[in-house]
Design goal:
single chain; 325 residues; alpha/beta
Length: 325
């Protein structure tokens, strides 16, 4: 049996990965996160609380693990990228130092790094294949640059010390597990937009023109793609776009969320707010490499995934109201 450490396992993407691992008897699961893990994780996995930026704490977290899935990072929506540029850079890079250093010291069998579609922030080829990265200008956002730095760390550790690595880049993750923030743009677009619709905002506010495109990928699909890459010998020393394949405009995504919330399609209207200095205009990955090498592709239809996410957020809101004094 393989023992897998999932850093950041209490987050949305990390939690989906942990859920998938717990369903597989091949894996014994350890979660390390600064946040409190929910009850279902504590019941099924070993849970540690640590600051993985500290080399000693990182080493203790990795000790005895055969595989590491590194999800821990400061993430968030478009406003967060612009509000916390130094913090994103400092914390995420410190995590690479701690966790990759520990993985090398403990000689893990596979280190799987959860990167980001933001490494392709300035892509010029669509759908964007993995091999476009060396020709792509580096990201302008601190978040995109910090995630690209993590990929450089993986490759450097392999070249110098033989780290067995795999890189997975989720594209526009959505699904149960992420709460919207009070300020739009701090969380990702899907929970932000659902919150706006459910709160009665009319017209629905979006950042920018709405012509920007995204490729929404359900977290359960991301988890299955990550596990496919982790298991496969073909995933060793490779990078993969882990994504759905449907490119949609932000305006169309907003419309679909509106309808998933049960609103009248004829009353849908948008208000365009000024966007941020970095607002990627097109995000559409090629997913051929994952199909070819891993025999993996996303399966969850967007309509179903959005409906599930709306139900989850409604339930959380009811729980919050019930707990209020």
């Amino acid at each position: 049996m393989s023992r897998v450490l999932v850093t950041g396992g209490a987050g949305m993407v990390g939690g989906a990965i942990v859920r998938a691992l717990l369903r597989d008897p091949e894996f014994e699961v350890r979660v390390c996160d600064e946040r409190e893990a929910p009850a279902w994780i504590r019941e099924g996995a070993e849970v540690q609380t640590a600051d993985l930026r500290d080399p000693e704490q990182a080493r203790a977290a990795v000790a005895g693990a055969s595989h590491v899935i590194h999800c821990a990072a400061i993430v968030g929506g478009i406003a967060n990228f612009h509000r916390l540029p130094y913090t994103l850079t400092e914390v995420n890079n410190a995590l690479y130092n701690g966790v990759i250093g520990a993985a090398l010291a403990e000689r893990v069998e596979r280190f799987l790094y959860i990167s980001s579609s933001m490494v392709f922030e300035r892509a010029t080829v669509f759908p964007t294949p993995e091999e476009h990265l060396p020709d792509c200008l580096p990201p302008r956002s601190a978040y995109g640059f910090s995630k690209l730095t993590g990929e450089v760390y993986c490759r450097a550790a392999h070249e110098q010390f033989g780290l067995p690595f795999t890189i997975c880049r989720p594209f526009n993750a959505y699904g149960p597990g992420e709460h919207p923030a009070e300020e739009p743009g701090i969380a990702h677009a899907v929970p932000d937009l659902i919150r706006k619709v459910l709160s009665g905002q009319r017209p629905l506010q979006i950042f920018g023109s709405g012509t920007q495109t995204r490729t929404l990928t359900h977290v359960d699909d991301i988890a299955s793609g990550v596990l496919a890459a982790l298991r496969s010998p073909a995933g060793l020393h490779e990078d993969f776009n882990i994504s759905a394949a449907q490119e949609l405009s932000v305006a169309e995504i907003a419309r679909r969320i509106w309808e998933a919330c049960g609103e009248d399609p004829d009353s849908f209207a948008l208000e365009q707010l000024p966007s941020f200095p970095v607002d990627v205009q097109r995000r559409w990955p090629s997913v051929e490499k994952a199909k070819r090498l891993l025999d993996w592709e996303a399966e969850i239809e967007l309509t179903d995934g959005l409906a599930q996410t709306v139900r989850w957020l409604r339930e959380r809101e009811r729980e919050r109201e019930a707990a209020a004094p």
